[in-house]
Structures are given as C-alpha cells and as structure tokens.
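Lab channel / #folding
Pinned by the channel admin:
"Please post every new chain as: sequence first, then the structure tokens as a reply. Keep commentary short and put observations after the output so the thread stays searchable."

First post following the new format, from NK:
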Amino acid sequence: MSRLITGVFSFLLLTQSAWAQKEVMLESLRQREVATWDLASKIWELAEPGYQEFESSRLLADALETAGFRVERGVAEIPTAFTATFGKGSPVIAILGEYDALPGLSQEAVPERLPRGQASYGHGCGHHLFGAASASAAIAVADQIKAKQLTGTVRFYGCPAEEGGSGKAFMVRAGLFRDCDVALHWHPSTRNTAGDSSCLARVAVKFRFKGQSAHAAGSPEQGRSALDAVELACHASELMREHTPDLTRIHHVITSGGGAPNVVPDFAEVFFYIRHPKAEIVRELYPRLLKCAQAGSLATETKLEELYLGGTMELLPNDSIAQVALKNLQQLNNLKYDAKQTEFANRIRETLVKPQPLESISQVTDTSGEVGKG
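Reply from TO:
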C-alpha cells in the first residue's frame, strides 16, 4: 500500500513540501488500518467471480461514498464497475482497484491447503487487498484535498473481472479514462517492487468441437469423438510451442470432455491463452493455434466452433513516475513480521518449492525493464 500512495504523493506534490505532506497522508492510512483490513477480509470471504462481484464492489463503493466521494455505479454498462471521484480540476489522478477472485482457489485463512466449504472461488491473486488498499490510498489523498493542502482530482476506478475478463478495456472504451493525467496501480506480490515493468499481452479463445455420440464398446465405429479432437488440438499446440519466439506462453485447460468413458463424447471444449511481451507477436501466433484446432477437427471428422474472447495489450509503463515511486518505497519500507506472523509465514514456506527468506520483506526490488508474467 505504501508503494501506491507514495506514487500518488509524488505526482501531486511536485512543488510543495512533499515529505511533510506524505507523513500526514501516511498517518491517515495508519488511522484507517483496521477499517482497511476489515474491508479486505470481507472481500476475501466473499471471493466473487469476475463480473459477479456484486457485494465486493458495493462494499468498496459504499466506503468511498461515506468518505465523501462522488460515486457512479454500473459504469461502462457493467453492473460491478464503478468510479469514485473527489476534488476538481487538474491533475486527474486515477487509482485502480480490483476485487475479483479465481476459480478453484477457495481457501480458509490458514497456512495449509484448506478449501472453504462449498465455495470454489478464492483470492489467490490478492485482489481483496488490491481493492481495499487502493481505496484507502484514494481516501488519504482526498483528505488532503479537503484540507486544501492539495489541488486536483483523485478518482478511484472499481475494475471488475481482471482475471481474464478484461474489465478495464471496456471501461477505457466507454471513455472513463479520457480526462486522466496518469493512472496508478499496484498488485500484491511475493516481494516489494517498483519500476517501469510491463506485462504480457494476451489473447483468449475457446475451441468447441461437436461430434457424434455412440456406445464406445458396442458401436464405436458410429462415433466421432469431440474429445479426440480436443486432444489432437492440444497435442498440436504443444508441438507448436517449440517453434515460437522466446517468452511465448501457450497454456490451456479442457473445460468439457464428456461424462462417461463408455460414451463417445459428442461435445468437448478447450480454453486457450496465448501470451507474449509484444501484442504483435500474439497476433501472429493466433492463426497458427487456430490451425491446430482445425487439424483436430479435420482428423476426427468433427465440427469446430471458434469462440474468440478477445485480448489485452501489454502495459505502457511511465518511467518517471515509476522511479519516484521506487525511491519513496525504498525510503518508507519498514515492514517486518511479528512473532505470530513469522510462525504463519514459516508454515507457508514449508509448502513452497522455492521459498524466499523472510528477511526479503524489508527489501525493495527495482523491476525497471522487466516483463511481468501476468
């Protein structure tokens, strides 16, 4: 959270007594610590899927509205997207917050694998922290605008469906960022970092195959297996991977493959991502992946349906802001574990293949020039 708020300070306070202002803002954050953690914990418990984060988005929007922000809900025709604005005039600083969960990662707040009851979604990517901390940062800046110590506008963007749903892309298309001077975001991680790092561009697609059902033992010759088509498409993609540019990532999951081994599946589906640091490379790779699916269809005499789900560009980093944020985080990072947290962290480390030393919490890494794998 300190990483994000120091970046906001740096942009707003170019000619003012920055460090005195920052200390006031940091004190505002400290006073909100319990409320922020309570908000994050509630979102953790809710663990709502992308575009279905109705309660999570409401909690964040209500907290910002209570703090005096002008809240617009359901922006970009997305029920769980919203903006919350405080102040007026320039500069307009955007602070992004996310709150969607991931499938298959339901988890109790314990240091070993323990799913929560019947829930299937969980916050394995830390978006419960992302949304709550960003909201608190925005409130801390708004407090200084209210006190006439700062001028300008701070706007929180409630961004749904980051996990594969591209919620921000629809918000951009709706013109919600048109008046912004800069957009700031952060993300929970295994290390403290700042820098002008980017991310991977991505396209997503589902290949659906339709065949002919038959009894797998009694009349297999009458069947045309949709699952066979999926398996061939996946195998072809794995062979293709050897002949792609460095840093390419191609991964998939079979989302439907039949219900019983003695029935030839007449429907099967596979979900693919292609990722690379450059969007133009992703564009070049997609037609080759499509050929893999077409080959599976041809070989099995099944019908292919291509459900293209769009894509996202790599980030355009701002080095000037990133370097100021890095400097501030290095100066302000005083994180350390207490005895209870140390015990909890050590139990988690026992489950990891490559655990990091606990002392790394006090370190700050410059990620300038790096490409994140998200």
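NK: The chain has a mean pLDDT of 91.
TO: also worth noting, The longest helix spans residues 279-300.
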